[in-house]
Amino acid sequence: MTSIAFIGLGNMGRPMALNLVKAGHQVAVCDLDQAAVAALVAAGATAATSAGAAAAGAEVVVTMLPAGRHVRSVCEGEAGVFAHAAAGSLVIDCSTIDVDTARALAAAAAAKGLQMLDAPVSGGTGGAAAGTLTFMVGGEEAAVERARPLLAAMGKTIVHAGAAGSGQAAKICNNMLLGIAMIGTAEAFALADRLGLDRQKLFDISSTSSGQCWSLTTYCPVPGPVPTSPANRGYAPGFTAAMMLKDLQLAQTAALTSGASTPLGALAAQVYQLMVRTGDGDKDFSGIFETLSRTP
Ligand code: NAD
Fold it and tell me: 46 - beta bridge partners?
């Protein structure tokens, strides 16, 4: 049994914290939303008044927050995690944030005598509830080994990607690839529609040809060929277009600062911006098929 502070009980954090409670750990929770805190307390967690207060009594602190600025505000400052966690504590940030912030926070944590990992996840809210998330972890080997049993209570695949920031790097590289592949898949179906080619025929051919990819065979953006894909439920998420846009923008920031050439990543960010700006940010990102089909 480990004493854990869990900060950020949103769509992902809530089920992840619940899995830690179910695994028998002592979990102190903190969120700006008191209803989210109350739900976890009802399941066996204890409520903390601030991130720092939660961290003060914990061996391990887990954060699951929207973006880099939220993680900074929770970790730094007088009421923050770094000021209150005991020396030797382990901080695991599972949020998807920019690589530079992840590296800066890891350095600041080390200066305070704390271990810190960036451990963003893949698998969505379904994976969080089922405890089947994939963790992409950046940081020192010893800290990763210390975190492994706790991560295993929330996920089934744990990959040590490299030094601090490498987890975030892996996450944005993967999601940039996914965004580009989904747009390509949706464009192929939009073109097929205009050419009068049956969608199922295109699926049957491309899924066994060189166009085969996850966006086609697992997450097909048109209704029909893959019954479990969001296209069959009005593009209810899944993974929202707004979240995909956030990750594509993080990839572009990283490309700019590192000097990488990612022209298709840049274009993919603009295409998802179009989807979000036209009011579909809350739909699943595979709904980009509708956005493209509407374009004259
Ligand atoms: P969310 O917006 O549902 O939850 C964020 C929570 O953080 C909210 O409950 C909010 O009240 C809380 N919060 C914000 N600032 C706080 C503060 N200062 N102190 C305490 N609590 C604070 O977001 P989510 O969907 O749970 O996503 C969390 C992270 O996981 C994001 O970085 C996201 O990109 C990533 N992610 C999400 C998914 C997904 O499918 N939802 C999948 C993979 C990764």
Answer: 28
What separation in Å is there between the alpha carbon of 95 and the centre of ligand 1?
7
Residue range 90-98: average pLDDT? 97
Pocket lining: 8 vs ligand 1, CB cutoff 6 Å: yes
Give the residues across from 93 on adjacent strands. 63, 118
> Is residue 216's pLDDT more than 70?
yes
**Residue 224 Rama label (left phi>0; alpha psi -120 to 50; beta):** left
CA 271 to CA 180: how far, in whole Å? 10
Q: Is the CB of 63 under 6 A from ligand 1?
A: no
**The predicted structure's pLDDT at residue 238:** 85
**Which tens digits make up the pLDDT trace of 249-270?**
999 999 999 999 999 999 999 9
Residue nearest to atom 44 of ligand 1 (CA): 121
Task: State the distance from the centre of ligand 1 to the C-alpha of 156, rounded, in angstroms.
Answer: 21
Which domains, from first to last, does the chain contain?
Answer: 3-162 (3.40.50.720), 169-294 (1.10.1040.10)
Ligand 1 pocket, residue 81 CB under 6 Å? no
Of 12, 241, 25, the C-alpha closest to 127 is 12
Answer whether 82's CB lies under 8 Å from 63's CB. Answer: no
Write down the mean pLDDT value for the chain.
97
Please tell me the predicted confidence (pLDDT) of residue 77.
Answer: 85
The yes-or-no answer on residue 22 being catalytic is no
Token readout for 144 is: 């990763």
239 CB near ligand 1 (under 6 Å): yes
Residue 296: pLDDT band (50, 70, 90) is low
- For atom 1 of ligand 1, which residue has the closest CA? 10
Coil, helix or strand at residue 77:
coil
35 C-alpha vs ligand 1 centroid, how far in Å? 15
pTM above 0.85, yes or no: yes
